[in-house]
Structures are given as C-alpha cells and as structure tokens.
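Checklist before submission:
- one chain only
- standard amino acids only
- sequence pasted in full

Submission:
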Amino acid sequence: MLPTTATASAPPPLPAPAPGEPHAALFLALGYMRLPELLACWRVCRLLGEAVAGDTLLWRRVAVEPPLSNRVTDEILVKLTARAEGTLRSLHLVGCFRVSDAGLLRVVEQNPCVTELYVPTCTGLTGDGVVKIVQLLHEHKGNIDRLRLNGISRMSKHHLDVIMSLMSKGNPQVQQDRSPLFYNHRAREVLNTNDERPIDVDVCPLCTNVRLVFDCTKDDCRKVKHSLLRCRGCYFCITRCEKCGGCISSEDRTEADLACSDFMCLDCWLTHPKCSTCNRPYCERHENLMVPLSMPGQFSCQRCAELSASLESQEDGY
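Returned file contents:
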C-alpha cells in the first residue's frame, strides 16, 4: 500500500561524511579564514591539510598580523607565499620585523604579479630595498597600485619620488592622491584598508621626514592657503586631538589635561566625563581604565584610585 504523502519528488539527503572526515561545509569556509586559522586547519587532518596546501586560490592574499608577525622570518615567508605558485596578488605584513629586504625580494621574484604590498612597521626593511622591489615589479610589467610603507627604516624623499615614478609608469592610473588624511589613533596604529591612496606616507613639510602626514580637521586651519602656515605635518611635529584630529595649541595642552598619555583639544575635553577627584577625562581608547565609583555615572582615574587605596592602607596601619 502506497503512503498517503507523496515523497518521490523530495531531494535525497546529503550523504553523511565518513567517521573521522571533516564536513563538506568546512572546505567551503576555508576561503574566508585568516592565515592563523588556515595554518590550524592544515594540521587538523590529512584531508584538510591537502585542501589547504593544494588550493592556490587560498594563498593569493596573504596577511600576516600580530601575534604571528613576531615569528615570521624570511624562510617562513618564502614557504608560505610559495603555496600561491606565482599567483600572489596581495601581501600584508604588519610588524614583521624579522623580514629583510632580501627575503621580501625573493617573494616578489617568485610572484611578480603582486598588486598590493603592505609592510607597515616592518623595521627590517629599508628604503633602498623597497625601491629594488618596486623596480623589479616594474621590469616584469607588474601593475602594483597600493603600497603601505609607514615605519620603514631609512626612507627618504628620493626613495619616495623613485617609487612613485615607477608606479606611475607601470600603471598610468596611479597618481599621487592629495586628498586629506585626518588623524586618529586607528590611522596611526592599525592598517587602514579603506585608504584608496597609492602610497600612505608623504614628506612632512616641517621635519622633511617620510611619515604619515595628517591634515587638520578644523575649518579655519584648512582655509589657510600658504603651505608653510598650514598646520599639516606628521604626528611628531604637530600634536593632534585624539577625538577630532584637529591641531592643539600650547594653551589647550596646558588646560586640557588628560588622565592618559594622549592629547585632546579644549572643545573635545569639555564634552568628556571627568574623574571625580582630579577632573581629568580619558580619551575614548583609554576609557577601559576608568574605575567606577558607587555613585552612578561617576568614576575615578587609575592614578587617583591608587592614591586613594594607598591612603586607606596607611590609615589602617595606624
């Protein structure tokens, strides 16, 4: 006797994986994993290891970030990028101080089609080494259009001019972007992948060093036409507000004192909650250092909290 509900058109269920084998969905997720997760899956089992090591598409974009940056050497980087089999397009190295000019040059020689090269705070690299790498890509008809060089050692204006010239010859669409760059702690500490400029650094008009050069967010300062009078410069030459990114006068630095090591203009300082004891605020990235008090909405800074605890212990000793 036939069942009352028709089941002939229902799709058959997916076959269950054999015992000990990874689910098929896990293979689809490999393309969305970062480098640490890929390396972990590589060591899980034979099937996943073969899938990770054998798929060149997984290695077309390699991003090495802390804490893995401290362990990557020239040899390790060459082995990792060799998995792309010459198809590497994007290489992000953040704080890889053990990577040298020679090691990065070997990687580029094996992958001449790189279009993005991010090496911020890789202190083992130099300006001369970066010029050789860009020149090699230019000779191989490469079209590199994005470089991030903040923190590279011994980088000069000459290096920057040569790099920009080579990039423009290889890709006519690449031109030095003069759009303003506004300061915030994310631009200084974290790689900003939304920045569309071909090169992140510029020559500071005040100290002439090659660094991140910030424009002022204040309308009055941006209206100044004379370049020497405009408050445009690197972080070391012009103090910036951690909140709005505007310049800070010497008077503001004296009056707008913070409970942390950063700086804030007086306008932003007035809008932030203050320590109940010393009347000093924290900037947004140090708000986790606030010590809440019993009264709602009030807090104490760490310095005042430690001083209060020290006084209480002294009173208990008498």
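Reviewer check: The chain is about 35% helix and 5% strand.
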